[in-house]
Design brief:
The protein has 341 residues and is α+β, with helices and mostly antiparallel strands. It contains 11 helices and 11 strands. The strands form 3 sheets. It has a 7-stranded antiparallel beta sheet with strand order 4-3-11-8-9-10-7, sandwiched between helices. Strands 1-6 form a two-stranded antiparallel sheet. A two-stranded antiparallel sheet has the order 2-5. A hairpin with a 2-residue loop joins strand 9 (236-244) and strand 10.
Length: 341
Amino acid sequence: MNSNKESLSGVEYLNYVERIRKKLDEAPLCNCMYPQCNDIPIQSHVFQRRGVLKDISTKGKVMGFHYNTLFSTINNEQSICYKEVGIYKSFKFWGFCQHHDNLIFKPIEPLNGIVNWYDKKNQYLLAYKTLCRELYVQLQMKKLFEKLLSTFHYTSEFQERYIQSLANISYSIRVFERYKRLFEESMENNDYSKYGFKVLCFPFRLELCLASPICIQDENNMQNWNDVESKIINPINIVEIFPDKDKTYIIIGFIEGADNIWAREKYTMLSDNVEEMSLALQDILFRSEFHCMSKKLYDEIQDEIPLFLEEWKSLINDYSHKLIYKSNIFRKYIEKQYDNI
């Protein structure tokens, strides 16, 4: 490919892309995500930086799921890994202004740290913040592809691939914006009937934090969102996992009116024996890029992680509801926890 001004080598091109990606992280791309607010957002965190993230950190750091730089691909290095990262960078995004970040999420970020996670409003608030973070990530990706397409001349094959990627991202943004409005209208009207949650509480502490919307391809019939009389389409599950004192909460969200096959299956498995429970946890982890764990947990399961990462690379584009794994990174750890109860 050629720059509009000059030809770049492969290394120079990758370096340019990395600079854009870094720049997109340094400043907000939009105003506050609260409706009709034009104020500048601060760096919000899905999980409290001074709460659960601090609790699982070692010297302010956790082990985060991490994409290596593009240079790893030309150096034959692992493209994904777990990497030590400061809690300030975990689950952050430029989401809400200071006023609305404090006002909206105060119920789930109290000073005493005590939250009733069986309360529907609290479930909605955490899911809403998770959804907004994903929307922001999609906006970043859209900006990146737009910048690349406007800066470089690509071969027809790459041009078509990038244009298609941009179209897919734009479609995802519309879907997430639709869900965002659904959550906002529900909370404004105190009507929590359109999106439901299942809550599980394990009687042991799993120092894992995860917050992700999860889309299962074979539950998505790709109809038009504007057809409001039709069956709910683009079903998105919003899943949260986090420790709270000596327990672990798993909250699985689902759109009412859809089949929600994957959500029902995971909930059943998480309520079953250790083998099923650990496989369900791994399946959720596999589908979520936005997660981190304590160094202590990482050390306990690190022998299982290489196979998990290999499977992740081979199944990265499979969004069907039934994935088969050879790895099972949590089984031994969970067995040990139950033995100690």
